Amino acid sequence: MIGIGNSFRRDDGIGPATVATIESLHLPGVSVVVTDGEATRLLDAFAGADLAVVVDAMRGEPPEPGRIHCGHGAPTTGGGNTHGVGVAAAIGLAEALGRAPQRVVLLGAEVENTDIGVGLSDPVLAAIPELRRLILVELGG
Amino acid sequence: MTDHDREVRIGSLARVEGEGALQVIIKDGRVQQANLQIYEPPRFFEAFLRGRQHTEVADITSRICGICPVAYQTSAWLAVEDACGIDVGAGIQALRRLLYCGEWISSHALHIYLLHIPDFLGYPDAISLSRDHRDVVERGLRLKKSGNAILEMVGGRAIHPVNPRVGGFHRAPTNSELAVLAEQLRHALDDALATVEFVANLDFPEANVAVELLAVHHPDHYAIESGRIRSAGGLDFSSADFPAHVVEHQVPHSTALHATFDGGRYLTGPLARYSINSSQLSPLAREAAAAAGLGPTCRNPFRSIVVRAVEVVYAIDEALRLIAAYVRPDMAAVSTPPRAGIGHGVSEAPRGLLYHRYQLDADGLILAAAIVPPTSQNQAAIEDDLLAAVSANLGLDDAALAHLCERTIRNYDPCISCATHFLDLTVHRQ
Predict the structure, then answer these.
(1) Does any CB of chain A come closer than 8 Å to the CB of residue B163?
(2) What's the whole-number mean pLDDT along residues B277-305?
(3) What is the pLDDT of residues B344-353, one digit of tens each?
């Protein structure tokens, strides 16, 4: 269970906030990692896992804060540029290196406000119960 | 449009940090222009530092870049401490140098293995490289991890470190914590030496950058976290004199400012650092450089990958030396009472010389801030190199020419996000 984001950039903290609600359940065989999405740490987080559920903040066009997106495997990136090596490349790299979990599930929640500061905006906060339900379905499956 | 008139446009540059484009215009068989178009929105850090407290600079400027936050923090605290007349002492300085070694290792390993090696081995990206050269990429990832381990131990975390502050650190690590780190670094040193051997055998096109070189120089060691400024031409001056020599100016095609050194184009970064300071590398790093075929200077941008690999050896060697000599400071930080004044700071970010200047009032509020990142300074020299590369290879078709231009740019490991003040290629053949 991997939560990606920066809790000090408001809605970017949706990943860490969501996985915290799973960590508190102390589910057997489930380890919870909070990370910034940097590739080498994501590769480490994948180590030995059959399933990785990754929760991250995302932007949609047109935007709808709190809307949830779900995908499997490596996402395609929007452009040819790169800020370091991100989530998509990390999953691609893990697959090429034979380090990818059998299943990778990506859950994204659209953000409203990523300014400096703590706390989620209302529509993003309201997405947590549904994200949590989707995660528990994946963990159960 | 005839065969002699072409426009090559790269709409979005891959494997560089940030976003930018390149436009090359060829008219009557001659290259007229090679413009790097940096189109990330300007980031306004200089503006929102105004009105903040002098003690906040480390936390604010670390957010400028996820790849080289320590560089931004370092030049910032150097400038603020210069303004306040504060000397942090040798113990804290050594810990700062150790932290910065972590950033060099991590940043260089990322560029060498995930961004630059694919160019030499003919792969479009690191993922396809990994399918055929798994061991190579695994070695790069281990190296990067060792750099991150330093950042995490000394900086509190690998990206945007939170433990350093103006005046020192919130907490100094214990000797036993650093001993664990040293064990990891001893293994990383083997990977770093293997990296130099590997990149030394790559195929390097002939190239030579003729512009002036500028780097931080320290009398006692290969400059990283502090020092004066030195040019290949022999000038030596303090950070306070940087504004007298380096002038920034706007160009229409980029949101990043260009810069000139005494009126001319110049280059900072690994080639400049190595050419000015190579005699100060550790014996192990010098031996690795010599075995890889590097002389005392290096002006071939394709060979910058070898210089980076040598610098990784140095940074690990130096980190081990710093850990062996470490005495935990009694105080993790010195007090930093403000005073009115102007301070300057320079350090060697992985991509080159990074300058900060702050003007403080008597209460420590920042009245003015200036940040001159290495990629901004290098833009004009990169354009020069592009012009030369395209001029020498006009016979190539547009796709091959575009690929050559991308390689030319990646040689400099530009960090467009930092510079924003960056890449897409268009070649206009008219």
Answers:
(1) no
(2) 98
(3) 999 999 999 9
